[in-house]
Design a protein that fits this description.
Blueprint lengths: L3 H15 L3 H8 L7 E2 H10 L4 H15 L6 E2 L1 H28 L1
Antiparallel strand pairs: 1-2
Helix pairs in contact: 1-5, 3-4
Bound molecules: calcium ion (CA) (2 copies).
Length: 105
């Protein structure tokens, strides 16, 4: 089973490489256009990031429970943006660490 870090990295790659902006990703996955990403829609995002079918529901559920500030069980744009920003900055930190390691060799 993939680690949490690997899963988050996959989601980050999906959002940063397949979409021009987080806005575009949000509206792409908000299929019913209600301005929220509910679990069903988030699950599609997770699946699209090539996270295994079996765990995509669990991952989507965890993302929501961890980052849903107003506890309405779905992501609004502000919550989504905050989680994407965090994903990207965490990713940059990881990359920096990796390049540092390399340059020390
Ligand atoms: Ca929706
Ligand atoms: Ca919410």
């Amino acid at each position: 089973m993939a680690s949490k870090k690997q899963i988050l990295a996959k989601i980050r790659i999906l959002i940063t490489q397949k979409f021009k902006s987080p806005e575009e990703a949000f509206s792409f996955f908000d299929k019913n256009e209600d301005g929220y990403l509910e679990k069903k829609e988030l699950k599609k995002l997770v699946r699209k990031a090539k996270v295994g079918r079996l765990i995509s529901g669990i991952v989507a559920g965890k993302m929501i429970s961890g980052l849903d500030k107003d506890k309405n069980k779905k992501f609004d744009w502000t919550e989504f943006k905050a989680s994407v920003d965090k994903l990207i900055s965490d990713g940059l930190k990881e990359e920096k660490k990796a390049t540092k390691k390399k340059s020390n060799m």
